[in-house]
Amino acid sequence: MRIGLITGEYPPQQGGVGDFTRELARALIAAEHEAQVITGGTRQDARSRRQEARSKTEDGIVVQRVINSWGARCWKQIADVAQRERFEVLNIQYEPAAYAMQAGVNFLSSPWARRSIKVPIVTTFHDLLVPYLFPKAGPLRWKVVEYLARHSDAVIVTNEEDRARLSNLPVSLRYPAERAAWRQFPTSNLHVVPIGSNIEPVDVSDSDRVIERARWGVQLDEFLLGYFGFLNLSKGGADLMQALKTLLGEGLPVKLVLIGGRTGSSDPTNAEYAAQVERLIETLGVKERVIATGYLDPAGVSRTLRVCDVMVLPYVDGASLRRGSLLAAIAHGKAIVTTEPRYPIAGLKQNESALFVAPNDPRSVADAVKQVWQNEELRTRLECGAAEAARLYTWDRIAAQTVEVFESALRTTPAGHAPRNP
Q: How far apart are CA 278 and CA 299, in angstroms?
């Protein structure tokens, strides 16, 4: 199958959606499909003012860096690539911050855009946040997200909470001009396909572990807490710092390592929240016990994850399969302390493969970390449970499930609307 993956961010930009798209493309290619990425130019492209179509192979993946803006003009640029490359399906990787909060891609499945785009469009929602649009847009912001969901030929969500929200959309016709040919939009046409870890685990020997911990100034007798991902309002960074203060106050020999970049390339709100957390670190007097690695390449991230004693991920809205940082912790077989998920997560069970705590409760976070520190048997059990859960979230499985959705969209798309390329 010839597949076009549309994403608003892509490496070298920092961001989970771009990393996901790269890993999915690799897995699709490994399964003998032809997958290409359609995205915007890099900063270097912008500085050189190169406006012509740019296609090159990056790490074995053909990347079409042709999008100058994610407004309505992106339709034609995407259509040109789709026609030239003879794609059979387009897959939008949707997260509004990745598209600079612009809404052009939300209407890629509109009747106007479909005049040029003649293949099925499948949208993968990485979250259900809303774009900016304009001041005081209010409920209209959700409407454009809803529009994309309604008008896509199939919809993929990464977690049960997003599936539940989209499944409650009122039923309506997608294409009023074709009422005779179309049934009502089946809200059951939702598919849950989890994300995987963007960080491939690397092997770390006992001697490597000593060296890696020493690199970050961590002694062998110190208990290392790990946090992976950008500092974001929804990820509980402030609660984590309060929990660290509590643990230090109780005499535990703990340090905390913040793994990876501070704010990423897409979401401007991350910088403001990160500054708040940094001020809190100063106020709490825990600065000497916090290590910030800054941006690391994937192997560097993996090595740092490997040497952590416990991963602490106190998401404000609960653990979820939309969180790449959680999937990375699972993939590395780490003991995990995180907040209670709103919906069950396959492979994660309290006291077996994770310790779940209440959200917005630094005291419960501290208590859970203390349990792992005191109880070596519990820590080993959590590690083994996470390693077992990781088998559910491998990229070959994710690619196969995604292709099943593509094939379903090809079967159900009405003849003449989006014909399959010969």
A: 26
Q: What is the pLDDT of residue 180?
A: 40
DSSP letter for 418, please: S
CB-based contact 379:335 (threshold 8 Å): yes
Strand (E) or helix (H) holding 408: helix 395-412
Question: Average per-residue pLDDT in the chain?
Answer: 88
In 3D space, the residue among 267, 162, 189, 256 whose CA is nearest the CA of residue 217 turns out to be: 256
Dihedrals phi, psi of 6, to nearest 5 degrees: -100, 125
Distance CA 385, CA 5 (A): 33
Q: Which amino acid type is present at position 350?
A: Q
CA 76 to chain centre: 27
pLDDT-flagged residues of the chain (< 50):
46-47, 49, 51-52, 172-185, 415-416, 418-422
- 289-336: per-residue pLDDT in tens? 999 999 899 999 999 999 999 999 999 999 999 899 999 999 999 999
Residues 85, 87, 92: CA angle, nearest 5 degrees: 115
Q: Examine residue 12 and say whether the peptide bond preceding it is cis (omega within 30 degrees of 0).
A: yes
Separation of alpha carbons 223 and 205, rounded Å: 18
3-class SS at 88?
Answer: coil
Map tokens 């809200």 to a residue: 187
Closest CA relative to residue 230, chosen from 281, 283, 269, 196: 269
Delineate the domains of the chain, giving CATH numbers in brackets: 2-196+395-412 (3.40.50.2000), 206-393 (3.40.50.2000)
Q: Which helix (H) or strand (E) holds 300?
A: helix 298-307
CB 98 within 8 A of CB 10: no
For residues 72 and 116, is the Cβ–Cβ distance under 8 A?
Answer: no
Cα gap 361→367, rounded to integer Å: 10
